[in-house]
Amino acid sequence: MDKSMVCARAAFVTTITLALAACSGGPSEAQAHGAMVKRAQRASAGLMTPDYKEQIGKSKIGSCPKSDEGGYLCDVSMPAGNKAKIRFVNAEDGWSVADDR
């Protein structure tokens, strides 16, 4: 098999993988990070450490099954080793962290 065929197959597999990931319904890692940054900005009123965006960006987003309350309940591992379940909802202005009380 020549190199162009290998590259074409690799591109096809990558495209299908990305398309299936987009159909999963939950937020991507980048979307979840963006929602967490927006939530931190709203909640802190300027009291966050200067590197809070970097710290949020280092968090890992695990599985995100649908939540009974709406949206997706995602496993989140923070850089310091803390773990949490965060519910994300897709609103008009994009993904956001749900304000569960």
List descriptors.
alpha+beta; four-stranded antiparallel beta sheet; 4 strands; globular
* Beta-strand content: 15-25%
Mean pLDDT over the residues: 80
Main sheet summary = 4 strands, antiparallel
Work out the helix count.
3
Q: State the separation between the terminal residues, measured CA to CA.
A: 58 Å
Can you give the helix content as a percent range?
A: 40-55%
Our count of domains comes out at: 1
Structural class based on helices, strands and sheet pairing: alpha+beta
Order of helices and strands: HHHEEEE
Rg, Cα atoms, Å: 17 Å
Low-confidence stretches: 10-23
Total count of strands: 4
Shape: globular
Strands across the major sheet, in which order? 1-2-3-4
If you had to describe this structure to a student in words, what would you say it looks like?
The protein is α+β, with helices and mostly antiparallel strands and about 100 residues long. The protein has one domain. Helices cover about 40% and strands about 20% of the residues. It has helices spanning about 5-20, 30-45, 50-55; strands at about 60, 70-75, 85-90, 95. A four-stranded antiparallel beta sheet has the order 1-2-3-4, with helices on one face. Residues about 10-25 have low confidence and may be disordered.
